[in-house]
């Protein structure tokens, strides 16, 4: 895209300061002394005008409170001053629905922004929102001013621009039938350091045999015209000039084009400025090189279409230029040669060819890019006023914050809308109306908004000055209270700050001649205690000596007075049918009625809405349950069986008949509640149809019946195969051992018979005996010769 490089919202920039809001009631913290002060605190605050609203010890400022709190404190809605903001459209002409070729309209008859004029009444903290429509009209008039650098390096570019008029008129006719074009040129300030080192160069600053015109700062060559041929003729007469340094004085020229509307011929239509150069630029501060120290004044100084005070005023700053271009609804297209792409940090640009032959395409592309986006900007806001934007663009695209200011990709004929919220945080010092303007950047149309501030209540105008109610005319009686004159104090302005010593004042603020002033819960004002305020608007000190409060009473269930009464001077005042120090004892006996319409079944008394059973065996809401009485287990057996195991006679009607108790399953019998652990209970053991036992307890916990049941059944055991197998195996083993012993016995008998037979045959056998002739004994006997047998 091709657009002015600096942030477009610069001119409308307004700093926003965010303050952390303390917790608690801001209405009470404000300590407002009058209705006007109260309503400026915030939109939640109201002022009670009822003269009898204040209790003893309460300060006038306690009339200012949140609306709901005032209602609870007994202030009728008709007595609450709570002014509301409002808005009114003074001019609300619909956007123009017009197609190209339907007939020419004057620019002032075309509407692209709706509404055009509003008045808002703002109350502090209360936003006022309105919708703004924007529609880019078909065939909308366009003014284009071509501002060109005529230093010597732009010589070939000038040749191509000489025929720009007719060609550009032809191309722009495709966009609009009402197009005007103008031309201006610039070189540099006519101060010696910028143009030459010798005065002789002033007539012809170019070198060699080049014929150049004298240097100049800015020249308005052609006022905006619809005659393209006139553009070609006058531009064709222009000559190149020169200067000493590379940066040019283009910013001086842009400033004059922006502020000299009558000389340029700007209309209230789309205004385009094409700035064409191949060099950088001088800006504020560079004038010191030529001895120029006065800052640019941002005013028109054209005489005979020439800028005449370039030697007197410095170059403008970028911020100054942006402001003036925005103020005059001028959209700038920077067209520079490729050699200047290094300046992209300064501004975004369209790249010209070396000889500007592509300038027409560049302008058309830049215009299409600029016209496809709408950005809202606002004038400077009054102190304490903030503004928020929310956009609703094409194809359902929305934006908030800074993105809520703009819509992109808009075609001619598209309609977009913005919701704009304006909020005042305070009243201006003088309380006078302020005017702000909101407009689309680069368009002459705008919304003018008059801001009226609600700084006083309606009852203020009915105030009675020097009223007798305010102690013989020492104040103005307004909105149910006295606004004391200067030097007077007290709820009714009955004291003068100079009449009574502080000791005398304090004495009347001590209870029973004690040492604490206002019981340390207030301040002594004019001999009367004004009690302190609490963070919680529901909590208050009261009494002649601020000795009472409404928040230090007994509590029940963490509620003040049990939620059944209110606290007055640290004592609970109970509602009807409630009693007790904390209003926690109900006098209603309907909760103690049994099914037989007797209170507690005749077995107890009703105390605080609960039966107190006189017979220790009974319990329950109406003393109807006897957990330890015979027959309790049998009474609940079928329901416990169907709910815990899905069996029994009531399994089909279990949900209907057996939902009167809470069932809790446990894994083991030792997990069942034991006597003494909870409320009186009955341990039960029942058998089902399969001879399985189930164990449970039955008890009444306050008003709820509870059954704890073991989740597994205890069934009788069947024949055990392991002992049988073991017995069989043992029998087999015994038989085996017996057989083995018999076999062993038989073998012993057999062996003995065989041995006896062998012995018998041996005895009967006859054998021949003799010695082996080769046998030699292995034993050798040696006799000791010394042995004498001793």
UniProtKB/TrEMBL annotation:
Record-annotated Integrin beta subunit tail domain positions: 633-720
GO molecular function, one term: protein kinase binding
Keyword Oxidoreductase: no
InterPro entries: EGF_extracell, EGF_integrin_1, EGF_integrin_2, Integrin_beta_N, Integrin_bsu, Integrin_bsu_cyt_dom, Integrin_bsu_tail, Integrin_bsu_tail_dom_sf
Transmembrane segments: 721-743
Disulfide bonds listed in the record: 35-45, 38-75, 48-64, 206-212, 260-300, 427-684, 455-459, 470-482, 479-518, 484-493, 495-509, 524-529, 526-561, 531-546, 548-553, 567-572, 569-600, 574-583, 585-592, 606-611, 608-654, 613-623, 626-629, 633-642, 639-715, 658-692
Biological process annotations from GO: cell adhesion mediated by integrin; cell migration; cell-cell adhesion; integrin-mediated signaling pathway; muscle organ development
Domain Integrin beta subunit cytoplasmic: 744-790
Protein family (similarity comment): Belongs to the integrin beta chain family.
Protein name: Integrin beta
